[in-house]
TrEMBL record:
<comment type="function">
    <text>Catalyzes a trans-dehydration via an enolate intermediate.</text>
</comment>
<dbReference type="GO" id="GO:0009423">
    <property type="term" value="P:chorismate biosynthetic process"/>
</dbReference>
<keyword id="KW-0028">Amino-acid biosynthesis</keyword>
<comment type="subunit">
    <text>Homododecamer.</text>
</comment>
<comment type="pathway">
    <text>Metabolic intermediate biosynthesis; chorismate biosynthesis; chorismate from D-erythrose 4-phosphate and phosphoenolpyruvate: step 3/7.</text>
</comment>
<protein>
    <recommendedName>
        <fullName>3-dehydroquinate dehydratase</fullName>
        <ecNumber>4.2.1.10</ecNumber>
    </recommendedName>
</protein>
<keyword id="KW-0057">Aromatic amino acid biosynthesis</keyword>
<dbReference type="InterPro" id="IPR036441">
    <property type="entry name" value="DHquinase_II_sf"/>
</dbReference>
<feature type="binding site">
    <location>
        <position position="85"/>
    </location>
    <ligand>
        <name>substrate</name>
    </ligand>
</feature>
<comment type="similarity">
    <text>Belongs to the type-II 3-dehydroquinase family.</text>
</comment>
<keyword id="KW-0456">Lyase</keyword>
<dbReference type="InterPro" id="IPR018509">
    <property type="entry name" value="DHquinase_II_CS"/>
</dbReference>
<dbReference type="InterPro" id="IPR001874">
    <property type="entry name" value="DHquinase_II"/>
</dbReference>
<feature type="binding site">
    <location>
        <begin position="99"/>
        <end position="100"/>
    </location>
    <ligand>
        <name>substrate</name>
    </ligand>
</feature>
<dbReference type="GO" id="GO:0009073">
    <property type="term" value="P:aromatic amino acid family biosynthetic process"/>
</dbReference>
<dbReference type="GO" id="GO:0003855">
    <property type="term" value="F:3-dehydroquinate dehydratase activity"/>
</dbReference>
<feature type="binding site">
    <location>
        <position position="72"/>
    </location>
    <ligand>
        <name>substrate</name>
    </ligand>
</feature>
């Protein structure tokens, strides 16, 4: 069984402290624990970086090693053509994940490059949505295997 990759972009290491009125008080360590619990026996590569380069390198790793990707690219969602190009190479399911409902926020957050290649998009469920995304990704992986 190949791992799923849960990749988190810039400033998500500040979860629990950063704008709690938008992102809540759940920390990234708590999110990771929820994801690992939701994945059960499935191996999980859970990572966070503030570096676009590192995020792209992890997508490349997932291309070779992973069954699916959940990605919260944070600000890179709206700026990174390089991330889009990397994700386009991934053959498995991709869930674009956002803690907040980006469509209820300022218009700068309404155009996602990642959405152009994502299998599905989840937004606005809060940090508690991560395990929901893990279970949804498992369903997408199973569908693809049929």
């Amino acid at each position: 069984m190949k791992p799923i990759y849960i990749l988190n972009g810039p400033n998500l290491n500040r979860l629990g402290k950063r704008e709690p009125e938008i992102y809540g008080t759940t920390t990234l360590a708590e999110v990771e624990a929820m994801c690992r619990d939701a994945a059960g026996e499935r191996p999980v590569e859970f990572r966070q970086t503030n570096s676009e380069e590192r995020l792209i390198e992890w997508v490349h790793e997932a291309i070779d090693e992973g069954d699916g990707i959940i990605i919260n690219p944070a600000a890179f969602t709206f700026t990174s053509l390089a991330l889009l190009d990397a994700l386009k190479m991934f053959k498995g399911p991709i869930i674009e994940f956002h803690i907040s409902n980006v469509h209820r926020r300022e218009s700068i957050y309404h155009r996602s490059y990642v959405s152009m290649t994502a299998t599905t998009i989840m937004a606005g469920l809060g940090a508690e949505g991560y395990p929901v995304a893990v279970r949804a990704l498992e369903t997408l992986i199973a569908k693809k295997a049929r």
